């Protein structure tokens, strides 16, 4: 992870104005591609999945910005790390071999490296069974029981089944339990890979022509000539691949649903999007099954998305989306050119109220810094276009110049993300500071916040939701280069929390001075912001009052009844 003296971060050499132009261009390309394909009668609503396929290629386009003519023509050796773990290797390996296929003198060399000793997965390790059982509420026990014995309940119940797909989403589980308590059997649906299917040659031609034309119009001047054919091909191939997924998946899902569904059955899902999501939705429509999507985590409401990621929203591929709050619903439907259905706010999952302290050690400390530094290996998302070395350098500077100089003990909670072999330079900085305590246990943040007096974090991510609802004084670092707040959220955050702009020339000194105050003074100032904080909690996060699943249940019942009436009138 640490760069040697003779190492060059080629991505960091791309001028910031070029990066900004590229970011805007990706959003324009995806939006225009979707609109053009949607107007084709033989593509229609499948256009969103095709455009999403192209959107996912922005990782390759971002890397291509850094390549020069010399890279495309002169000898180049590309080192590819091999750990023996296929999933980890996929994340770590660079995208350069694909891009430099245009260079006959470029060679790719496999390099055996040890598997990272900790944090090797992108999600960290799950809490132990004992930890989970301590905090598992009754309704969660009920969900596992009802879903495990759904077949038995189905035989005894005369009510329509509720199918659940991708139940890692907590709001899905709460809604499913509301159905189960009222006599509906829960049936877990398994996803499967369907064999590739062919699509009509005229559709392929339209997609290729449209992708190529828009590439030349939108990305003009951004990429070196030898790379343009490779990038055009990747964009069109990705879009076509999603259409093939739909062609294969829709009839297969239709057969499955015809066997298990009956009148008024519904599907609750936690995220199949793109070709898979479109295939399921297409089949469900034909079988008269309503498909409902659920928001996962707080981010869409507060983030200043530099790319048009509305194309990722669940209601682009379902009959309705349930969000935590009105801001999320507006972002997902009203403000989106990709939405095909409405979004309804129902509140946050009850998990956001579960903040008991379990297995937190050492003893209570005044400050906790919750890092959102998420390493991405060779395939980082381009929402900010910062490479892992750049992200690491920013974080290390914050630790060295601010946190390590505070007159208080600070607990540093790293993000459970991909780690490289060898010591993380950020962790080295933390461990060398006398007042910082590295928290290495795999304990979820919600279980440990209340062991502290002040929370510090950065980046418009789901992490902010846990901090904002904890009612601890929250110090938020808003960095325009790393997942910044949108303008509306920034205004409200300024009133409710303590926001520091990382672009300000004196930001670190200002932050250091603020955090060096007596803790009681910070708490007093935070108490004065309580009214503004409640507004932010309600509008940008949602009420975690335990009724979100019940709210969604009631809306679904009304929706199913309304659709049933429509079908009756038609017949």
Q: What are the defining features of this structure?
A:
571 residues; alpha/beta; 6-stranded parallel sheet; 22 helices; globular
Give the helices and strands, then pairings.
Layout: H1 16-38, H2 47-55, H3 58-64, H4 69-73, E1 76-82, H5 86-92, H6 96-99, E2 106-112, H7 129-134, H8 138-148, H9 150-156, E3 162-165, H10 170-180, E4 186-188, H11 201-218, H12 225-260, E5 266-269, H13 274-286, E6 290-294, E7 320-323, H14 326-334, E8 342-345, E9 365-370, H15 388-401, E10 410-413, H16 425-432, E11 436-438, E12 452-458, H17 463-468, E13 474-478, H18 487-496, E14 498-501, H19 507-515, H20 519-527, H21 530-541, H22 548-570
Parallel strand pairs: 1-2, 3-4, 3-5, 5-6, 6-7, 7-8, 9-10, 9-12, 10-11, 12-13, 13-14
Helix pairs in contact: 1-2, 1-11, 2-12, 2-13, 8-10, 10-22, 11-12, 12-13, 15-16, 18-21
Describe the structure.
By secondary structure, this protein is an alpha/beta fold. 45% of the residues lie in helices and 12% in strands. The chain has helices at residues 16-38, 47-55, 58-64, 69-73, 86-92, 96-99, 129-134, 138-148, 150-156, 170-180, 201-218, 225-260, 274-286, 326-334, 388-401, 425-432, 463-468, 487-496, 507-515, 519-527, 530-541, 548-570; strands at 76-82, 106-112, 162-165, 186-188, 266-269, 290-294, 320-323, 342-345, 365-370, 410-413, 436-438, 452-458, 474-478, 498-501. Helix 11 (201-218) packs across helix 12 and helix 15 (388-401) runs parallel beside helix 16. The chain starts with 15 loop residues before the first helix and ends with a helix. 43% of the residues are buried. The model is unreliable at 119-126 and 355-363 (pLDDT under 50).
